[in-house]
Fold this sequence. Notes:
This protein is an alpha+beta fold. The chain has helices at residues 53-66, 83-87, 92-108; strands at residues 30-31, 33-34, 39-40, 50-51, 115-127, 130-139, 144-152.
Amino acid sequence: MANLFPTANNIMTVPLDNLKQNTPVGYKRSLKFDYDTGDFVRDGQHRLVSASGVEAFKQWCENCISTDRYAYSSYSTDFGINLDLIMALPDKAAQEIMLKKEITEAIMADDYKRAKSVDDFSFNWIDTDAVEVECTVTGIDNAEIDIKATVGG
């Protein structure tokens, strides 16, 4: 009977020193998601529609901003914003300052390092615990990506 486990030592190893650390890998394609319906976008023949790399990154940013950090074990602790901390602050001005900080940190914590900066924040308060946030994320290729997401509620 043949041995199921290889005995030859012909496995190629790459020293860790040769790997480029913290190098941006660029935008990755993904599937389009419709947050209004809560489902993936499909075409007329019921096939899934793919999103370009920039569109996928935009979706990632919107999801990141809308997710409460530490609430879901499927996400790392770097993903999302700490909504409890923000909403515990005494007034809207303090909450907006903390929202800017939390959103910037969350987007910049992206494992693929696709963002250079997060700027141009605007806030539209829908309720006492819900706000619509708009900001501009500058990507690694200097693309300006307009982000719009609802936080809280």
